[in-house]
Amino acid sequence: MSGRINNLVDISQSPAALRGRADIVLENAKWASHVFQRFDREATMRVVDAVARTAHDGAARYAELAVEESGFGVVAHKRIKNEMTAMPLVDYYRDDDYVNPRISENLKIVEIPRPAGVVFALTPSTNPISTLNYKIVLAMMTRNAIVISPHPAVRHCCVEAANSLAAAATAAGAPASSIQVLAEPSIPLVNEFMRSPKTSVILATGGSAMVRAAYASSNPAIGVGPGNAPVFVDSSADFEKAAARIVESKSFDNSVLCTNESVLITVPEADSRLRRALGSRGGHLCSDEETGLLRRFLFHASGFNVEAIGRDASWIANQAGIRVPRSAKILIAPIARIGVEEDLSREKLCPVLAYHVAKNRTQAISQSRAVLRLAGAGHTAAVHASDEQTAFDFARAVESYRVVVNAPCSQGAAGFGTNLAPTFTVGTGYFGRSSVGDNIGPQHLVHWTKLAYNSDRSEKFGDFRGVAARFDGPLPQAPEDGVPGRTRNDSPPGGGIAQSGIDREELRRIIAEELRAVLKG
Amino acid sequence: MSQDKLEFLERSREFWNPKKTQDWQDMGVDLVIDRREGYYLFDMDGLRLIDVHLNGGTYNLGHRHPELVEVLKVGAERFDMGNHHFPALARTALAEALAACAPSPDMKFTAYGSGGGEAIDIAIKTARHATQRRKIVSIFNAYHGHTGLAVKTGDERFSKIFLSEDREGEFVQVPFNDLAAMEEALRGNDAAAVIIETIPATYGFPMPEEGYLPAVKSLCDKYGALFIADEVQTGLMRTGELWGITKYGVEPDILVTGKGISGGMYPIACVQIRERCGGWLRQDGFAHMSTMGGAELGCVVAMKVLEIVQRPEVRAMVRFNSDFLRAGLDLIKSAYADFFAGIRQHGVIMGLEFDHPEGAKPVMKHLYANGVWAIFSTLDPRVLQFKPGLLLTQADAEDLLRRVEIAVDLARDEVKGKRRRAA
Ligand SMILES: Cc1ncc(COP(=O)(O)O)c(C=O)c1O
Questions:
Q1: Residue-wise pLDDT tens digits, A463-483
Q2: Which H or E element spans position A354?
């Protein structure tokens, strides 16, 4: 229908229309999840593997499209992230079963998995495809339907990618509408999705405003706050390795992972060796004047300059008016203070690292706490140290639920290069005003019905190994009577009655007898 | 029953329609619809009913669908019914929108009625003008409405009483699914049209046999008659396709849509006409007139209905609903096989057959008592018309099945006598 016709009386932006739009997408998802819950583990994993394979195959293409559409990030790095959130993610959870019941003989408890139902997932502009892959894989593993709401700045590549995964899922047997994506994710529309009683859980990764809106929606939400990771390099660290890891992490996809190191804090004994090591790895140490230029470029009255997000070091240096060698991978800005008076101690989604020398270990820890007090509570911190007491003291002091040790933090906190669960949604827990403090995984999208027996010893626990799991699988297609090849009009000819004279009980008895005979035989 | 309702029914008998009012009481259905929302009806005494009658698809999208309410409200700030003598913005816009999704390639024109019957009359008049023949062939027990011409295509019960039956032999009826009889009726090369409901609703949805409808169309072509598809109940995505007739591979000459196209919000019905059949529109455009036919507010609502039903999500919902309900009904049917005899289905058009000449009536009654409103087929009361909405939710679909099983059980006992339960 042409636009002109619709516009005769245009209600497309009215609350009724927006609500209607959300409602029908979510109800479709509800249907899909209802059918999906009939699937057994094998059928489920078939869908998961098909989706992961398609995500893998599209990794390079969508890395390119995402960089092109958003204008930032590094294609090669995005490709790695897109791949990591495909098959390796599935393999990480392959042995976990979110489909079959769990039986605990000694507790006399059986647990039956109950998927959330409809997952409404917001995905960010910084890690668009990897977050999308990751959330879809999680949803499929747990037999949930998912609706993706991409960040508007990257919606074209996200819509295409999500649709390719949706096609793969249905081709592998998933119910239609298991994966849907919003083509026009405007704020009022997204709010309708978040508010709808048909949304089971909101999985919000993105800007603070969006995450807070998710929590304000009245629906269950798993939202994560922003990061602003302090990284403490202790005097006991291996400086060469620490420097190499920090530069690698900060330059990875130009620091758009919210787990990137934001403020490096060290102690005087380490300072000069660390500077040298960083310098030799591609860190450009700014002079005071250069730091001032950077500060002015990166922070405006309204906050971080979004133009700088995910840009590389030379682009930023150039814009800020600093001359740096071509080999510079990250810009290091020494700062004397940490807190509200120093903008550079805030989150910086770009390869600029603030650098602060504290008086001693104790002060370093207190400064690290200050970094997270400013922003990024509950998110991420890192420490480079060979002394485990220092690592421990640091970790128990900072308000972060993950502290990466002797590894690149961007990747490590997200479970790549550490044995944390691979994730693109880092739970910021109660410190960070979130409901979950872990790396979000499939386990967060399922609750379990617990069948709890009388604990009294005289009461026997049932034998559940033989109990039928009742996976009915996909719905059989209803007939379309009279359509060639689609008819199943089972009306008895002439209005007569099939099996008349045999009643229900009789039928059940016959069937039961036949079954017994088969089982005996 | 509340005192209020008793008094109201009394007034209904007195001022509106004594017999109709009483008949429902006699059938055990004392429904007086008050509030309505989505697929729920609320009786004036508060009982909630899931509506699977939908007034024949009028409430396809639910009662008072919020987007239709909105478009009607906003539309009313600019339009009213309009002046039917003049070219009109909304009337033409809807005609264009209908042409864009018509079941036949050159179906360009739309003529408007204010209701289905009137639209059927227009269709018949159009066919008569185009062929310069008078004879109209329809199906035994067909129902196309109660206006002057439409009423003659149907059961004489509705025409004789008003001394309005066909006495010229211009209206001929043949059995459904009987091609020989159809050919017999057309053989004289004197029929203007065959008018046929893609799946006859009021007759309990007997399903067209494979190849029947295309063969009827071929016979029409062979003997120079037009094919009028009455899609008043089968159109608007109820089969999972916009027009049911498309599923059967037929391109009709004229298509009538009513009921659902109004969204249940503003009366309107449409006749879509292939260019070569719409001669009167060129010869004498004032030949058929109707002040309220194609009222512009109705057009505004109808355009929204067309837009909504064509959303891809709606198609998916119809699929889910028809598969899910069928799976559930099959289970109920096998548990009550001595009573629940058959299921006729295409999409969310369903007829449930019961093994008793009036078997659908007790089922209707017990459904009513258990919170579901579905109506028996007037012309085949063995069959319950089971017409869930396009947008029925999973939760309501499941609840519907639960209530159907309870009602079928009770109706079965009433009809067949209580059976001995296994000890
Ligand atoms: C198939 C069919 N055609 C035509 C009509 C007549 O429509 P209306 O009642 O709007 O005149 C009906 C009404 O029930 C119908 O079911």
A1: 998 888 889 999 999 999 889
A2: strand A352-357
Residues in chain B with pLDDT values less than 70: 419-423
CA pair distance A151, A126, nearest whole angstrom: 9
CA distances in angstroms from B26 to A61, B289, B370, listed in the order given: 69, 41, 18
Of all residues in chain A, what percent are helix, strand and coil, respectively (each to 5)? Answer: 45, 15, 40
Q: What is the pLDDT of residues B275-317, one digit of tens each?
A: 999 999 999 999 999 999 999 999 999 999 999 999 999 999 9
Q: Is the pLDDT of residue A509 over 60?
A: no
Q: Point out the residue among B90, B308, B334 whose CB comes nearest to the CB of A8.
A: B90
Nearest residue on chain B to A497, alpha-carbon basis = B341
On the question of pLDDT at A431 being above 60, the answer is yes
β strands within B267-362, DSSP E: 269-273, 340-346, 349-354
Are the CB atoms for A232 and A263 separated by under 8 Å? Answer: no
Distance CA A267, CA A244 (A): 18
Residue-level length of chain A: 521
Chain mean pLDDT for chain A: 92
Backbone CA torsion sign across B243, B245, B248, B252: negative
Which are the contacts of A148, defined by CB distance < 8 A and separation ≥ 6? A121, A123, A132, A135, A136, A158, A162, A179, A180, A181, A182
Cβ atoms of B269 and B91 closer than 8 Å = no
Q: Tell me which chain A residues have a C-beta less than 8 angstroms from the C-beta of B328.
A: none
Region for residue A461 given its phi and psi (left: phi exceeds 0; alpha: psi -120 to 50; beta: otherwise): beta
Question: What residues contact B313, with CB distance under 8 A and at least 6 apart?
Answer: A24, A25, A27, A28, A177
Residue nearest ligand 1's atom 13 by CA = B145
Q: How confident is the model at residue A485 (pLDDT cuts 50, 70, 90)?
A: confident
Answer whether residue A4 shows pLDDT above 80.
no
Name residue A330's beta-bridge partners. Answer: A283
The beta strand positions in B163-268, using DSSP E, are: 171-174, 191-197, 226-230, 254-257
Strand residues in B1-130 grouped as ranges (E): 33-37, 40-43, 48-51, 109-113
Give ipTM to 2 decimals. 0.94
Report which DSSP code applies to A472.
Answer: -
Catalytic residues of A: 258
Q: What is the pLDDT of residue B279?
A: 96
* Alpha carbons A174 and A44: distance in angstroms, whole number: 8
Task: Give, in order, the Cα–Cα distances in Å from A432 to each of A348, A378, A392, A429, A497.
Answer: 18, 5, 21, 5, 66
The owner of tokens 């396009």 is B390
In the prediction, which pLDDT does B114 show?
96
Residue B305's nearest CA partner among B101, B46, B144, B116 is B101
Radius of gyration over every alpha carbon of chain A, rounded to an integer in angstroms: 28
Q: Do B323 and A477 count as a contact with CB atoms less than 8 A apart?
A: yes
pTM of the predicted structure, to 2 decimals: 0.92
CA angle B57, B61, B62 (to 5 degrees): 90
Cα of B182 vs centre of ligand 1, distance in Å, is: 23
Task: Look up tokens 């159907």; give the residue.
Answer: B404
Phi-psi region of B41 (alpha: psi -120 to 50; beta: other; left: phi over 0): beta
Give the phi and the psi of residue A108 in degrees, each rounded to 5.
55, 45
- Closest residue to A475, CB basis, from B70, B327, B422: B327
